[in-house]
Amino acid sequence: MKIPKAISSLIESFEKLPGIGPKSAQRLTYYLLHVPQRELDDFSLNLTNLKKNTLLCSTCKNVGETDPCNICSDAMRDKTTILVVEQPLDLIAFERSGKYRGLYHVLHGAINPLDNIGPDEIFIESLLSRITSHQSLITEVIIATNPTMEGEATAMYLNKKIKELALDSRLLTISRLGMGIPTGADLEYADDVTLTQALEGRREL
């Protein structure tokens, strides 16, 4: 049986999304066939505007609508602390907890040699430059990469590179999230209590 081109093309598009296999892609596509055209048009418009109406903050690399983003431009945030996360979803998780009021830096990934992702493929250099240019203000860098092999490798690399900046170690603390985050877990799925425990139990590197 030959599947209509419009259907097969959309199935292929869904299959490219993370966590979507062939069967899920098929179910999503055939579900959308029963959705009113007006809702499909809205869905299509939202996809079109996704990248058109968003940008990366030049300071922290979070996704926002303005540059700098609303967190970096918030005068009420603690400017002395930077919490380093892998993805924007991790930042959202910490903001949801309401327990952290400092600044962020989003790497947009983790070091993973198996996938050919090295330090140059994520926003590590911009973090190092940021620390260097604000070394008189920043007193702590909290490394909040995921407790996975890739996250731990990224944390060790960051710790090494930050210490190589020859900053006054008496003024800058490098810490890692403490107990509360199970090994192998993703921060975006952690609940507010777990994230709070991880922040409060962070350890110096």
UniProtKB/TrEMBL annotation:
Molecular functions (GO terms): DNA binding; zinc ion binding
Tell me the keywords, alphabetical order. Answer: DNA damage, DNA recombination, DNA repair, Metal-binding, Zinc, Zinc-finger
Instruction: Identify the PROSITE patterns for this entry.
Output: TOPRIM
- Zinc-finger (C4-type) residue ranges come to 57-72
**What Gene3D superfamilies does the record tag this protein with?**
3.40.1360.10, 6.10.250.240, RecR Domain 1
PANTHER family in the record: RECOMBINATION PROTEIN RECR (PTHR30446:SF0)
Task: List, alphabetically, the HAMAP family matched.
Answer: RecR (MF_00017)
Question: Know the name of this protein?
Answer: Recombination protein RecR
Organism ancestry: Bacteria, Candidatus Woeseibacteriota
